[in-house]
Amino acid sequence: MPRKKPFSVKQKKKQLQDKRERKRGLQDGLRSSSNSRSGSRERREEQTDTSDGESVTHHIRRLNQQPSQGLGPRGYDPNRYRLHFERDSREEVERRKRAAREQVLQPVSAEVLELDIREVYQPGSVLDFPRRPPWSYEMSKEQLMSQEERSFQEYLGKIHGAYSSEKLSYFEHNLETWRQLWRVLEMSDIVLLITDIRHPVVNFPPALYEYVTGELGLALVLVLNKVDLAPPALVVAWKHYFHQHYPQLHVVLFTSFPRDPRTPQDPSSVLKKSRRRGRGWTRALGPEQLLRACEAITVGKVDLSSWREKIARDVAGATWGNGSGEEEEEEDGPAVLVEQQTDSAMEPTGPTRERYKDGVVTIGCVGFPNVGKSSLINGLVGRKVVSVSRTPGHTRYFQTYFLTPSVKLCDCPGLIFPSLLPRQLQVLAGIYPIAQIQEPYTAVGYLASRIPVQALLHLRHPEAEDPSMEHPWCAWDICEEILPLMKLLSTHP
Predict the structure, then answer these.
(1) Listed residue (405, 375, 412) closest to 390, CA to CA
(2) What residues contact 32, with CB distance under 8 A and at least 6 apart?
(3) What pLDDT band is residue 491 in, cutting at 50, 70 and 90?
(4) Does this UniProt record's set of keywords contain Calcium (predicted)?
(5) Considering 4, 32, 61, 233, which has the largest number of Cβ atoms within 10 A of its Cβ?
(6) What distances in angstroms separate CA 20 from CA 23, 31, 152, one per listed residue?
(7) Span between the terminal Cα atoms of the chain, in Å
(8) Helical axes 441-448 vs 90-102, angle rounded to 10°
(9) What 3-state class would DSSP assign to 298?
(10) DSSP string for residues in 300-369
């Protein structure tokens, strides 16, 4: 056997470097091939046909990209339900940055603070949400998909033809996500519209209320979620408001993490408590109210005694923590069946389908991103069955869960409906992913003109030599002063 030649450390490093370069080149080739295919598809999607035959090009920004190496084993594309929003032009972003430097912040009047839901959503206008066109089982899947695509493009053309991009809020441009809403509405017997109690008007599109209660003839339950984050007087006021203006609503108060408002809360323990919640679930506040609302809707057509028994078991076995403040791990309860939905365009659903089929009531959960739909389902079940995230748009596609043998829950991805809501308010309300904003100054200025941010944070104006002297603030100044403060907090928790 021939003797091996000496192999130095330098040669070994060179060999490893060449191997990494070859591997990187192979990955770049696969990525460029995938990008070329997706790029051509995105260019086709950017072309929007209007109803009168003209064409308008809308530049779409796709968020929450998921890493993938082509399609999955069953042809599933993890980026199929990505958030699609209209892209802000570079000129518009630069204009807003200049305004943040030049415009002095002034407190707005009390009239400006009021938010009229009729002005924001303009019921009866083209700001209505897209509907699924009529279809039948005689149509092929390709015909149905083509018809839905054409109808959706006509819908977008009407909106962009009636309103300028500056007036429109961010709203979903991904047809695949709207298809999820259509399926959920068609298969549901009761629809839950989940809203955030801190800004429920922002999350309540009147067009959806009219469609569900009118055209579909279904019961709509408005869930005011996260009530632990609002004063009780505000919760009661919002409940009275919706009862007065929308009489067909069933209003339910809910929170997945109830706490006693009389108990003082130590700010230093917030992070520790949020971490413990990942290991154990306390009993949610609101399932019994929701059960009573469903009993009033079904009026004995479905046996909901199993649901009531489950709530009784959860109350008896709820773990509220021991004296050391640590929560015990819950034992697994009864198995919850999870149905992975297929991509079939024609499912046995529709307004004419049999209600409460086989003695099962299907409850569809819809709403804007980040209002707590997945947390609500986890709170109803009593343990984590749905992945949750603080990032809007975390739920990709709808799934169904059997809460009991006679109660089925259906979780729909969060959808942003078209409106004239200020985009800055969408960012501040957590509807738009804050990590994806192209410039923070507009949202900060919007907040600072309504709340004295600089006084609350004890900020010192960067150009003020004497701290006691008043100096006009702009959004750029506030951001420049907040940045060192955030760095300090991150290094000294």
Answers:
(1) 375
(2) none
(3) low
(4) no
(5) 61
(6) 5, 16, 46
(7) 64
(8) 40
(9) helix
(10) TSS--HHHHHHHHHHHHH-----TTSPPPPPPP-S---EEEPP--S--S-STTSPTTGGG-EEEEEEEST
Q: 171 φ, ψ to 5°? A: -145, 160
- Closest by CA to 130, choosing from 418, 431, 423, 432, is 418
pLDDT, one tens digit per residue, over 258-308 is: 875 555 555 444 444 444 444 444 577 899 999 999 999 999 899 999 999
Comparing CA positions, the residue from 155, 226, 215 lying closest to residue 191 is 215
Tokens matching residue 52: 């009168």
Question: What integer pLDDT is reported at residue 202 of this predicted model?
Answer: 93
Q: Which residues pair with 255 in a beta bridge?
A: 285
**Locus of tokens 């003797």:** 3
pLDDT band at 153 (very low <50, low <70, confident <90, very high): very high
Locate tokens 């429109």: which residue? 168
Neighbours of 209 (CB within 10 A): 20
Q: Read out DSSP for 204-263? A: --HHHHHIIIIIS--EEEEEEE-GGGS-HHHHHHHHHHHHHH-TTEEEEE-BSS---TTS
The rounded distance, in Å, linking the Cα atoms of 224 and 219 is 16
Topology of domain 111-258+276-316+335-411, CATH:
Rossmann fold (3.40.50)
Rg of the chain over all Cα atoms, to the nearest angstrom: 26
In this prediction, residue 270 carries a pLDDT of: 45
| Structure-token match 């079939």, residue found | 344
Claim: this prediction has a pTM higher than 0.90: no
Instruction: Tell me the per-residue pLDDT of 154-192, one tens digit each, with 9 for 90 and over.
Output: 999 999 999 988 889 999 999 999 999 999 999 999 999
Kindly list the domain boundaries of the chain, sorted by start residue.
111-258+276-316+335-411
pLDDT of residue 465: 67
CA-based nearest residue to 186, from 413, 364, 403 = 364
Rounded CA gap, 81 and 388, in Å? 16
pLDDT at position 97: 93
At 418, the pLDDT band (50, 70, 90 cuts) reads very high
Closest CA to 69 of 29, 96, 117, 125: 29
Q: Provide CB contacts within 8 A for 140, sequence distance 6+.
A: none
